[in-house]
C-alpha cells in the first residue's frame, strides 16, 4: 500500500479472521529521517480504537491487515502531544512547492515500508491530478483514458516529506507549512518569495512573514502584490510591521503606507524609529505622479573637498544604507547639488585628487514637483540609471531610479495588480489641516 488513499477504509481482522473494523486515520509520530506511522484509528461496531502499527501485518492479498496477537493482548495506542494525523492535519491542506514557487494542495500522501515492513514511513505528498483521482478510485480510469486518447500519462507531483513541516495536534485543521518557511524559503530570491506570498491565505502569509528574519521579510513583501502588502501590514502585529517597514527602502515603505487607511498608517508610523519615520513622512507628502512621489531619499551625497581616496572610504561605510551607488552626488554645505561623479570616474581618478576637479557640473536633474512624463523623458533622453531630484533652491532632496520609473510607465497588464491607492495628495491635505 503505497498511498494513504489506498490504506483508508481497509479492513482489519483478528487471528481467527473475524473483522474488527476499518481504518479511518493514520496517527504519525515525528522521527528522522521521516515521520513514522505509529497507529491506525480503527472504526469498530462498538466505537473506535487506536491500534499500534507494530501489532499489525499485511494480509497476503495486500487488501487488508491482520492482528499479530489476540486483540485482548494488544495494548492500545495513546496519541502523544507531538503526534499528528494524516487525514485531519495534512490531507487537502496547502503547502508550498518551492521548485515551481507555487502554493498547492495535498491530494494524497505517499507511504513506504521501512526495515522489512516493520515500520511505515511518511515519505512525501502527491499534489497532482493523479493523487486526486486515486482518492476517488478513478486512477485506473484515468490511465485508460490516457491510453485511449493517446494522451501523455499524468505524472505524480511528488514533494518529499523532508520539505514538509508536520503539525502538532493543537494545530489540527490548520494548513500545514513546509520547513522551507523556516529554513529554505529564506534562501530563495525575494521575488520568488513574494510570488509565493501572493498565493497564500492571509493567515499562512503572516505566519511565514513572522518566521523570516526582518530583512528577508521586508525584501519579500516589497516584491509582493500591493493588495498583499496592504493586507499583511494591516493585520500584522504593529511592532513586527514597523520593523519590516524600517528595513524597506523609504520609497517602498511610503508606497505601501500610502495604500493603508489613515488610522492604520499613523499607527505604524508611530511605532517606527524617528529617522525612518521622518524619511517616509517626507515622501508621503508628495503626489503619486510627481518626481517626489517616485523618488527615494536614500542616496549618496558627499562634499566636494573630499579626495577620491577619501570618497572611496566614505562609500565603504555609506553603501550598505544606500539604495544605489551608480552615481555619487556632490553637494555644498547647504546641500545644493553641485555635481555628479560615476563609479568609473572615481576608480580611475588619482587618489589625492579632489572630487570637485573631475565631477560633472552640468547635472541632469528634475524638480521635485515634475510630472511622471518629464521624469520618463529625461531617463530616455540621457540614458541615466538614476536621476537626482531637487527643490526650487537646487537642494538635493532625493533620487529616482530607472526601475522605479519603469514600474510606473509600463502598461497596466505588465505591472503587478494593485490595491486601491490612498492619494498622496489626500495625505498632504490631511496633514495641513
Tell me which CATH architecture of the largest domain applies here.
Answer: Roll
> How would you name the CATH homologous superfamily of the largest domain?
CBS-domain
Overall form: elongated
Please write the CATH class name of the largest domain.
Alpha Beta
C-alpha termini separation: 71 Å
H/I helix tally: 17
Helix amount, in percent?
A: 25-40%
The count of domains is 3
Q: What name does the CATH topology of the largest domain carry? A: CBS-domain
What does the average pLDDT come to? 84
Largest sheet, strands/sense/barrel: 7 strands, mixed
Secondary structure tally: strands: 18
Portion in beta strands: 15-25%
Low-confidence stretches: 166-172, 417-433
Structural class: alpha+beta
- Radius of gyration, in angstroms, nearest whole number: 30 Å
Describe this structure in words.
The chain has 433 residues and is of the alpha+beta class. The chain is built from 17 helices and 18 strands. It has three domains: 4-85, SH3 type barrels (Roll), CATH 2.30.30; 184-284, MgtE N-terminal fold, CATH 1.25.60.10; 294-414, CBS-domain (Roll). The protein is 35% helix and 21% strand. Helix 8 (238-247) packs across helix 10.
Please give a handful of descriptors for the protein shown.
17 helices, three-stranded antiparallel sheet, SH3 type barrels, MgtE N-terminal fold, CBS-domain, 433 residues, alpha+beta, seven-stranded mixed sheet, single chain, 3 domains, 21% strand
